[in-house]
Design brief:
single chain, 336 residues, alpha+beta, Cathepsin B, Chain A, 2 domains, two-stranded antiparallel ribbon
């Protein structure tokens, strides 16, 4: 046991020395500034490892942006709060959508398109209509599913009442385990909607604040802000049906493949990732509209990584590009 510990210490020391020898000296001050801005403090050996990861990520960002400046990409990247994480670490920490099985998907009524005679508007942005609360921050908790769920509930509540109330993600994190969710360990939006229906309500954000931890359920009906009676799926993989739902219903909860470094450091532009799949969804977000920019159709997607990520917390994702990143593979909304 002691021998293994000694060997481990020697290996860490060797790696720290190796990392230190390959650092770019011009990046010493930027690394210190980045750590200070994001409140990062490490012991010496981990600092060396994290700096190596950060430098590698920074160079990947710079290389991508060179291609962007040459017209090879439709979006650019930027260093952000995830700069000292590998893509694998980022995925494990921030992506909490649990892939449902087929039986789960077919157990609930599936909704197809609206009448084909209905003409869709060329663009939709529910933020302009008051349906969308400010961008939130899930922190170091795999609760994206809860933020996606509250976003859809907030929009439908506004549609019904004319009042925009920020709802409690923590209520869902703590209290929907009986419906099959796992708190910070991940979950499904439909299970969140089922909890709200079963519980006959969900608290407001003010009444049940977010902690980014798994805590005992503390629902208080005195802070109940809304309810839902059911939930509906949009036809799987059908972007036309999804556009119909967004245009006629409001913000829609979706799940996407967000396992790529390009998503981790997305900054602005229309996101298209050729390595995305349309069947391995890892992260839950909220579609709040769609539009067209520079000849490219896009979805307006609200994330839950704070306004420090992406385009002030949003990402424009490719629309009508063969369901890129599974944008239409798992779309669901609550009925209020």
């Amino acid at each position: 046991m002691e021998t293994s510990l000694v060997r481990g210490y020697v290996l860490l020391s060797f790696l720290a020395l190796a990392f230190a020898q390959m650092f770019d000296p011009l990046l010493s001050e930027p690394w210190l500034n980045w750590k200070s801005y994001h409140g990062r403090e490490y012991m010496q050996k981990e600092d060396s490892y994290r700096r190596a990861v950060w430098e590698k990520n920074l160079k990947t960002i710079q290389l991508h942006n060179l291609g962007y400046s040459m017209g090879k990409h439709s979006f650019d990247l930027a260093m952000n709060q995830f700069g000292d994480m590998t893509t694998e670490e980022f995925h494990q920490l921030m992506n909490g959508f649990q892939q449902p099985d087929t039986e789960h998907l077919t157990s609930t009524k599936d909704v197809s398109t609206r009448p084909k005679s209905l003409k869709l508007p060329g663009s939709v942005d529910w933020r302009d209509k008051g349906y969308v609360t400010p961008v939130k921050n899930q922190g170091a908790c795999g609760s994206c599913w809860a933020f996606s769920s509250t976003g859809a509930l907030e929009g439908q509540t506004f549609k019904k009442t004319g009042k925009l109330v920020s709802l409690s993600e923590q209520n869902l994190v703590d209290c929907s385990k009986a419906e099959g969710n796992s708190g910070c360990g991940g979950g499904w939006m439909e299970n969140a909607f089922k909890y709200v229906s079963d519980n006959n309500g969900i608290d407001s954000e003010d009444g049940y604040p977010y902690t980014a931890t798994d805590d005992p359920c503390n629902y208080n009906p005195n802070y109940k802000a809304t309810n839902c009676t059911n939930y509906m799926f949009v036809s799987e993989g059908n972007e036309t049906a999804l556009a119909m739902a967004v245009a006629t219903i409001g913000p829609i909860s979706i799940a996407i493949d967000a396992t790529h470094q390009s998503f981790q450091f997305y900054h602005h532009g229309v996101y298209y990732e050729p390595d995305c799949t349309d069947y391995t969804m890892s992260h839950a977000v909220l579609i709040v509209g769609y539009g067209r920019k520079s000849g490219k159709n896009y979805w307006i997607v609200k994330n839950s990584y704070s306004t420090s990520w992406g385009d002030k917390g949003y990402i424009l994702m490719s629309k009508d590009k063969m369901n890129n990143c599974g944008i239409a593979s798992h779309a669901v909304y609550p009925v209020i």
